[in-house]
């Protein structure tokens, strides 16, 4: 799984999402993150088909939405997503949110898809530690990924540690806190020191914390900028300063208080 990918949440189906995916692949991205809920899987699939890069070199993630959770309905939802993407297999399939009373049956469906080779990896999204503990009690195959809101104002250190101990890869959605973190004086100051943009500093912070990151954009120049994070390293001192920005602030819903 690549450390950097393109998120396509809120990218409109059709030309907008196709343009973003093609720009990302041209800029060197090899991971694209979509979901049934985003309503743009068809455009993502078309862009992958037309980009000229072999399918096996591109890592594609999609997710089952809350209203389709449950064993049989998840299998049906997966097939819908696969057909829209027009792909023989999906690289990573995630449970989008921990719908109480449903995510265990949903997980059994993901295990079946994995065993059948329809999915190369399976995981969850927006799972707290208590959700993971509950799920792990009944699994044959442990989740390989947990995709959560993660940025310097929401470092989730306990969750990160739990995931590491259980060999679950943490992945960051909204790594730039919907742009809010880009005006943080500490981030700007550190960016000036390394001659990097605030976004590049935060995305590099993700990587050095061993967190996969999927910033979203439909602007080619921003997509290219977000990928320029492999040619420098943030010092331990500056990493600690970024960690110190944590105030447990979410820009998205809390999984424990989400209207499913």
UniProtKB/TrEMBL annotation:
Lineage top rank: taxon: Bacteria
PROSITE patterns: ALDOKETO_REDUCTASE_1 (PS00798), ALDOKETO_REDUCTASE_2 (PS00062), ALDOKETO_REDUCTASE_3 (PS00063)
SUPFAM superfamilies per UniProt: NAD(P)-linked oxidoreductase (SSF51430)
InterPro entries to which the protein is assigned, alphabetical: AKR, AKR5G, Aldo/ket_reductase_CS, NAD(P)_OxRdtase_dom_sf, NADP_OxRdtase_dom
Sequence ranges assigned to domain NADP-dependent oxidoreductase in this UniProt record: 10-246
Signal peptide residues on this chain, from the entry's feature table: none
Keyword Zinc: no
UniProt entry keywords in alphabetical sequence: NADP, Oxidoreductase
Transmembrane segments: none
Record-stated family: Belongs to the aldo/keto reductase family.
Protein name (database record): Aldo/keto reductase
